[in-house]
Design brief:
Elements: H1 3-12, H2 17-27, H3 31-36, H4 50-69, H5 73-82, H6 87-90, E1 91-92, E2 98-99, H7 101-105, H8 108-121, H9 128-139, H10 156-180
Antiparallel strand pairs: 1-2
Helix pairs in contact: 4-5, 4-10, 5-9, 5-10, 8-9
Length: about 200
């Protein structure tokens, strides 16, 4: 199954009709870009289609953790889809991936809140408390103010989303670092961002 079809399959399982409606509203006009967009300039999933791969892995992790902790599965799926959705506006891609003007001046967290706020405004009767929960997932997903979140996670779902997002970003960095390491030793070279070396898999 291709990544877009997998995303649609997961969306079809959403039971909360408000969440299903707003996700459909947001995703439908963004399909073409989401199929090809990277998740970052360099840090993680920085390749064509990387953003969708990241969304799907975060969604998969959130699904498992929602069951483990009795959290709201549909809300977590929405968080997985929406937390980085504005990277479609933050980044430009072509011969190289760079930051757009809005990406530099505003950033994907704020842009993501704008997307949600404008989308729910078009849905008559959309519950305001649910709107606030969705926006909180976006603004808190970096986990702390030091890492760029305007607020820190204040719900179980926000804590889970932040952890799942961080885990997937780090694992992608580690896998790429190990794959690209050209040394002959048992450990990789020092990774400056993650501030450590990594043990190479057996046979690597």
């Amino acid at each position: 199954m291709d990544p877009w079809s997998e995303l649609q399959t997961r969306l079809a399982r959403v039971e909360n009709t408000w969440i299903a409606q707003v996700l459909t509203e947001i995703l439908r006009p963004r399909e073409a870009k989401l199929r090809i967009w990277p998740a970052a300039v360099t840090v993680h999933h920085a390749y064509p289609g990387g953003l969708l791969d990241h969304i799907l892995k975060v969604a998969e992790t959130c699904h498992a953790l929602s069951a483990a902790y009795g959290a709201d599965r549909d809300l977590l799926f929405a968080g997985a889809v929406l937390h980085d959705i504005a990277k479609l506006d933050e980044l430009t891609t072509g011969e190289a991936t760079t930051y757009s003007r809005d990406g530099n001046l505003i950033g994907h967290i704020t842009l993501g809140v704008v997307i949600v706020r404008e989308s729910v405004a078009r849905i008559q009767g959309f519950p305001d408390d649910l709107r606030a929960h969705l926006e909180h997932l976006i603004v808190s997903h970096h986990g702390s103010r030091q890492l760029g979140s305007p607020v820190e996670p204040m719900t179980i779902e926000a804590l889970i989303l932040s952890a799942a997002d961080d885990l997937d970003a780090k694992i992608d960095q580690v896998r790429r670092h190990v794959a690209e390491d050209e040394g002959e030793g048992e450990f990789t070279a020092f990774h400056p961002r993650l501030r450590r070396s990594f043990l190479k898999p057996a046979g690597r």
